[in-house]
Amino acid sequence: MQRVLFPHSWEFRERYSAGQTEFESVVLPHDPVLASSRLDDPALQATGYFPGGEWEYRARLPAPAHWRDRHVVLEFESVYRSAAVFVNGDLAIRRPSGTSTISVELDRYLRYGGENEIIVEARAHRDARWYTGGGIVRPVHLAIAPRVHVPLDGIVVTTPEHDAEASVVQVVTTVRNLEAIPAVRRLETSIVDPSGEVAGVDRTRVSVPPGGSTQVSQRILVMAPRRWSVETPDLYRVDSRLSSGTGDIDLDRSEVQFGIRTLHLDADRGLRINGDPVELRGACVHADNGVIGAATFDRAEARRVAVLKSAGFNAIRSAHQPMSRAMLDACDRLGVLVMDELTDVWTRSKSPDDGADQFTDWWQRDLEAMVTKDRNHPSVIIYSIGNEIPEAATRSGSQLSRSMSAEVRRLDPTRYVTAAVNGALFVMDAAVEVDPELLDGAPLHPVDEINGRASSLEDRMSALGVTGAVTALTEEAYGAPDIAGMNYLDCRYELDRELFPNRVIVGSETFPTHIDRLWALVRANPHVIGDFTWTGWDYLGEPGLGRMHYADDPPGNGALGPYPFMLAGSGDIDITGERRPASYYREIVYGLRSEPYIAVRRPQTRGRTTRSAPWSWTDCIPSWTWGGVGTEPLEVEVYSDAPEVELLVNGRSMGRRPTGPDHRYRALFEVEYVPGRIEAHAIREGLGAESVVLQTAGVDRRLRLTPEREALAVDGRDLGYVVIEIGDADGVRATNADVEVELRIDGPGSLQGFGSAAMVTEESFVDAQHRLHDGRALAVIRPTSAGRITVTASASGYVSVSVDLEAR
Q1: Partner of 485 for a Cys bridge, out of 3, 171, 418, 505, CB 3.0 to 4.6 A?
Q2: Residues 778, 720: contact at Cβ < 8 Å?
Q3: Which CATH code of 2.60.220.30, 2.30.29.220, 3.50.30.30, 2.60.40.10 fits the domain covering 155-261?
Q4: pLDDT tens profile 432-489
Q5: CA distances from 160 to 169, 171, 217, 386, 534 (A)
Q6: Domain 594-695, architecture per CATH
C-alpha cells in the first residue's frame, strides 16, 4: 500500500458552541486553537493562555463500486486529542492520545457506489505543560490496495552485515490476505541506490492463508554501499511489487526509504556510526511551528531541521511526543540524528487532563505506533520512553519501564532505548520515601510547579543530584533502558563513571546557559555521548520560561510569565527561524565558528540586578541601532574561542578582554553608544584574526520583503516563507523600528500565519496585521492552486512593497 494525501475537502465547526453551528471549509492540517482568543486566566498559563475546545471535522468520501474488491485505509497522523472517528454515523475508532497515528480500516463501513460521511471529533484543554494546539494537526492520508497486499508500514529494512565493500540488506515484508481463500503471489523487492540505479533484486513466491498474513524475509547484497551518516546522508529505497502468482500482473506496490549504516555503543568508546565516533550536539524541540501553531506541514518541518543543522546541531530530541513523519524524512535527507520520545506522562498526571488515567491501557499501542513509524529511518538512533516520569523510581514504575523497554527492543532491536530522567525530581516530588541520611545534608524544599522546581534547584542541583538517595532511586530507572537519559544531572556524569562503569549517559535535557561546561564534560567523558539543550527552537506555551528575572521584578513573578506572555523564550532559534545570540555562542563552544560574535544588552537592563532562570540568556541582540539611550554606557557582550578579543567603535579601540574557554568564551565591555560601526577582533598569538562588524541603520529606511523561496509546489505540503523587515539602503536592519505591518495576499494563496518573535504580545498569528519585533516578522503563505501569488506589505510612514511567489 502507498499513502497519498486525502484529496477531499474538509469542513469544521466547534462542538457545543452557541455561536457556531454550521460547518465551514477548512484546509488540513489545521489548528483551531491558534485562532482562539487568549484569556488572562492563570489556569491557562502553561498553554500560553490559549484556551482549549472541542471540535468536529467532516469530509465526504466517494466510494466507487469497484472498491468492494479493495482494501481502504484512512490514516490520521495526529488528531489532538481524544479523537473519535465516525464513518456514516458508526464509530470506527477512538484514540485517547493526541500524538499517535490513527489508522481506520474503512471496508466494513463504506457504502459503495456513493458518498460516505467521515466525522472526526477532538478536544484539547489543559492536557499538557505547553501549547499543543488541537484538532487534525498533522496530515491525513488515504491508502487503497487489493485484498491481498502489503499493509502500511509492512516493510522493515535492516542492514545486519556490511562494510565498505558490500552490505547485506534484509527486507522483511508482511503480506496480508483479507480474502476467504488462500492466495499465491509473487513478491519482487528491488533496492534502488541514491543515484536512482537498481542495486539489487530478489524475487520469491508467497503463499498467504485466508484471513491471515505471512512474513517474507529477503537478503539482498549491495556492493560498494554508500553509507548514511550526518556528513553523507545517502538514502536508498526499497521498491516492493506484489504481483499475480505467475508474476505477469502488478497488484500492489510499496516503497520505503532507508540508509545503510551501523550503530555501536559502549561506555569506553561512546556512540559510533559506521565505526566513527559521534558526539550528539542536540536540540530539544517541541512540536509546534511558531506562527502557524501546531499545524504540521512538510515544508515547515524541513525548514526547522535545516535551520537547526546550519546552527551546529546534529541531533534533535522530539519533546515530548513522537516526531512527525515530515520531520523524520527531513532528518534522513539532511543528516540529523533523532531521539524520538513517546510521552511526558505515564500513570501520574502533570496536567489536569493529560490522559495519565488511560496510559496503562494504551501505552503498548502508542509505543508500537511510534516504533513502526520510525524503524526504517536511518536518522533515528534512540527511542525515549518518557520524560521526567515521577513514578519511574517506584517499584511499579520500574516494572513498567522494563516492560516498555522490552517492547521497544521486540519491535526494533537495532536501536537504543532511553528515558529522560531527573533523579532530583524523584526526591522533590516525594515519589518514594527517602531516608534523610541518604540526602547527605542536601537541601530539600518541595515546589509545586515543575518549572519552578527546576529553577529553584539550579544552585543546589549538584548537591542533591550526587546524594545516595538519588543514586539509589535512579539505579533501576537508568538500568532498564540502554542509555541513561539525564535531565539537568550533569553532576552525575563523572560520579557514575566510577559507580556504574558500564553506564552510557546522554544529557537528555540541559540548561542552555551551561553549555560551555556541559560540552567540556561530553568531550572529556566517552561514556557521555552528547547534550540536548532546552531548547533548540523556541515554542508556544510555558510562557516566559527563558525571560530574564531581575531583583526589582514585581512580587509573585514566578518561573512562568503573567499574561500576555505567550512564548517560552528559551530557544537558540526564535519562532521565526532567526538565530539568537545563544545560538552563536553555542556554535563557538562546539568549535564550529572561529569568528567572534557581538551582542548588545538592551538599554533597559542597565543597572538592574539579574536573577535569571537557568534557561535565560541575557536580554541582548546583535544590533548597534539604538535610540534615546542617553549617555550611560551600553553593555556589549563578545563571544570568541580566541584567547582575547579587541572591541572598536568607529575605529577607536575600547581595549582588549580575555575570552576563550578559561573565560567562558565571553567578554563584557561597557561602551558609550555612538552611532556608526562597532567591531570585534579575535586576537590570536597577539595578532588580530577573525572579526565581526555591526553597523548602525541609516535614516533612509524602507520596508523589505525577502522570500526564502520563490517557487512553491501546489501539493498540500509546501509553504512560502517571507521575512518582513525594516532596513536601510545598505540592508542593515533597523531593530528599533517596531511598526505595525499589514499584509495583503493576491492570487492563489492564503495567509497561513503571520507574526514576530516577541515573547509578550496580545496579537494573533492568524491576522493580517502584526507589529514587528526588533524590526522583523515572518509571514507564511500557503499556495491554493497554480499561479502567481503577490504578497504586499504596508506600514504607516513607509512605501508599500510587494514580492511575487510562483505556485506550480
Answers
A1: 418
A2: no
A3: 2.60.40.10
A4: 566 666 676 666 655 444 555 444 556 666 778 888 889 998 999 999 999 999 999 9
A5: 7, 11, 13, 28, 35
A6: Sandwich (2.60)
